[in-house]
Amino acid sequence: MQFILDSASWLLILAGGGFILTGAIGVIRMPDFYTRLHAAGMTDTMGASLFLAGMLLQTGLGITSLKLILLWVFILFTSPIATHALINAAFSAKLGMAQIDDRTDGKSGGAKS
């Protein structure tokens, strides 16, 4: 039984790491602030949730599991709110989106063919 619990825990932790790695790649590769923040905002909540679920399976019932659940609830509420606040501030400051021309090689400002 312990092997199944450990396997499920590691699977959740690795999946959380995969989500966070995907978000980090998205932050690097996306063309503008809005899409970068979307990549970060979507994946950090899911990645942290999977990490915490994996740790929750390891701790069992107790005060530590209660703390992990409270931390998950805190992240579940604050991460989307912070992402929304950042996007709202950028929009209020009239930060534009990247314009990508379909006739170029995919980079903004490239030579047209």
Principal-axis shape equals: elongated
Strand residue percentage: under 5%
Q: Give the helix tally.
A: 3
Q: Please indicate the count of domains.
A: 1
Structural class: mainly alpha
Which regions are unreliable across 5 or more consecutive residues at pLDDT < 50? none
**Total beta strands:** 0
Rg, Cα atoms, Å = 19 Å
Helix content class:
over 70%
Most strands sheet: none
Q: What do the pLDDT scores average to? A: 86
Distance between the termini: 62 Å
Explain how this protein is built:
With 113 residues, the chain is mainly alpha-helical. The protein has one domain (2-92). The protein is built from three helices and no strands. It has helices spanning 2-29, 33-59, 63-92. Helix 1 (2-29) runs antiparallel to helix 2 (33-59) and helix 2 (33-59) runs antiparallel to helix 3. It is elongated and about 55 Å long. The model has no long low-confidence stretch (mean pLDDT 86).
Summarize the structure.
It is built from 3 helices and no strands. With 113 residues, the protein is mostly helical.
Keywords:
mainly alpha, single chain, elongated, 0% strand, 113 residues
Write the layout of secondary structure elements.
Layout: H1 2-29, H2 33-59, H3 63-92
Helix pairs in contact: 1-2, 2-3
